[in-house]
Amino acid sequence: MKERSTGTREDYIKTIYELTALYGRATTNHIAERLVIKPASVTNMIQKLASENPPLLNYRKHRGVVLTTEGEREALQITRRHRLLEMFLQQILGYSWDEVHEEAERLEHVISDKFEQCIAQVLGNPRYDPHGDPIPNNDLQLPPSSGIRLSELRPGQQATVQRVQGRDSALLRYLGDIGLKPQTQLSVLDYSPLDENLRLQIIGQDQPIVLGNRVTRHVFVDLA
User: Fold this and answer.
1) Which residues fall within 8 angstroms of residue 146, CB to CB, at 6 or more apart?
2) Cα–Cα distance for residue pair 104/102, rounded to 1 Å
3) Structure pTM?
4) Looking at CB atoms within 10 Å, which of 56, 57, 204, 208 has the fewest?
5) How far apart are CA 221 and CA 224, in angstroms?
């Protein structure tokens, strides 16, 4: 069995994977900002990861990094473990969806492969985590995931919330309080181009709500 990466290495690999998904590549400054460390420390680590055999990433100075096939595979393994843990914490242990991320961050580095498999079996091999993010299956294939942001919708359109992007626990608590979670159905009543506010009607609620771009850009939907 292949030796597991250390927690620090896993954090780098997963962070590079997530940033690449957002921006197409991961810069040293982006990685440093996400991990709250100095850029010089990031440069040192990515040089080590690039010199692995096989290398886990390709690094070009001043151009950022991208994961190799091997690096992406490790990132998907870490992502699977993390998102399964989030589901386990919510479904089995009763954590709220705004609490699971930080707890899973700590646990993902210490559980065994066997424990990961047991979690998946107990949960019925879920395809999505509590935030609607896709969970790689045992073959590290990702189920489909929407790329349409709620902020892109306009009056007359109807949609179902698929996932909420981000680690901001305050945002997750707020969305939970107003009833905007995965599988929530909604329709767009109005849009203000001046401030990019959307007036929404959540199906099953009496009063419309108004949300700005700082919120709607983190919510992804499937159009009806």
Assistant:
1) 162, 163, 220, 221, 222
2) 5
3) 0.90
4) 204
5) 9
